[in-house]
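Lab notebook, bench 4. Still working through the backlog of constructs that have no structural model yet. Next entry is a single chain of 147 residues. Request: give me the structure tokens for it.
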Amino acid sequence: MTALATRGFYRSENTFDETNTASRSMYSEVVTYSWQAAARDKLRQLERLSDNWNSYGSIPPTRTVLHIAKVLLFDLLDDREMPVLDISPIHDGGIQIEWHKGIREFELEVFPDGHFEFLKIENDEHLEEGPASLSKVNSLISWVLHE
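Model written out:
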């Protein structure tokens, strides 16, 4: 069973399905690194967005998307010092998380249906993109960090 499965999500390759709504807030928000405080604050801002947040009819990030992001950031990546990341809403109720370090970038989009996709960039050149699994996310973060 994955860490996400114990928190109410079942992982199947690159998709998370909510299986227990009672466990939505079981992730840890313990802040060890400065990036975690910034991420926590940004996710709290995104939780307060309303419909039409960008005046083009966009919907705010769904509870499922926000929960997946919190679990990824606070439970699965909690033991890493990382560069400051950017977290932005996307129009369909998802979010995009970006990591930048030097010439390397990694973007992760979390979609309302629970799946996520990545984009790997170096020197402004798109190197790779597609569906992301947890192992792919970890390897891309290591790549950005030059680990």
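Notes after review: Residues 5-145 form one domain. The first strand starts at residue 9 and ends at 12. Flag for follow-up if needed.
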